[in-house]
């Protein structure tokens, strides 16, 4: 797999149950579609090892930031592009760009922080060594990609200027 560009790990289609009274995909489902991107990224990081082979060593998303940019509607086809912005022994910083598959426009971005999590101990743990190696391989391929413009944004009202 080529890691020198954003990863295309998940594709989806806007389903009827995701559409709200405003005739577009409800905000919760933008997160859900990107979360499938996180799940597929985790599968890649485990290099083919299935859940039962991972001895309870998984991940938990502990922080997320979404930017809703342009609406998508019923039956629109979607792709999730994923970029690893950084990692250490217990964390990964992942950025998803949700695009309309045919028209190519960015519909939303989703930035997440994931932590290594042991299902057995029910707590934060370092990633398994093979996961750390795969994260390093992915990061090495992606580290020269441009940083997404929305990465690291926060929510705030700008201070009003006094007259």
C-alpha Rg (nearest Å):
17 Å
| Biggest sheet details | 6 strands, antiparallel
Total number of beta strands: 6
Dominant shape:
globular
What is the subunit organization of this protein?
Answer: single chain
What's the CATH architecture? Roll
Order of helices and strands: EHEEEEEH
CATH topology assignment = Thiol Ester Dehydrase, Chain A
Domains counted in the coordinates: how many? 1
* Structure classification: alpha+beta
CATH first level: Alpha Beta
Residue windows where pLDDT falls under 50 for at least 5 positions: none
Task: Summarize the model shown.
It is built from two helices and six strands. It is α+β, with helices and mostly antiparallel strands and 163 residues long.
Describe this structure in words.
- This protein is 20% helix and 34% strand.
- The chain is of the alpha+beta class.
- Strands 1, 2, 3, 4, 5 and 6 form a 6-stranded antiparallel sheet that branches.
- Strand 4 (91-100) and strand 5 (106-118) form a beta hairpin.
- The termini are far apart.
């Amino acid at each position: 797999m080529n890691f020198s560009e954003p990863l295309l790990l998940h594709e989806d289609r806007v389903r009827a149950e995701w559409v709200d009274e405003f005739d577009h995909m409800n905000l919760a489902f933008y997160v859900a579609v990107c979360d499938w991107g996180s799940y597929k990224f985790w599968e890649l990081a485990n290099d083919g090892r299935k859940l039962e082979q991972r001895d309870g060593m998984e991940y938990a998303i502990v922080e997320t930031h979404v930017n809703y940019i342009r609406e998508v509607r019923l039956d629109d086809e979607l792709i999730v592009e994923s970029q690893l912005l950084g990692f250490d022994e217990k964390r990964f910083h992942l950025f998803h760009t949700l695009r309309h598959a045919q028209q190519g426009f960015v519909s939303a971005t989703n930035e997440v922080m994931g932590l290594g999590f042991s299902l057995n101990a029910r707590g934060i743990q370092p990633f398994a060594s093979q996961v750390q190696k795969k994260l390093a391989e992915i990061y090495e391929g992606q580290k020269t990609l441009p940083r997404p413009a929305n990465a690291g944004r926060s929510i705030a009202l700008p201070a009003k200027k006094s007259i």
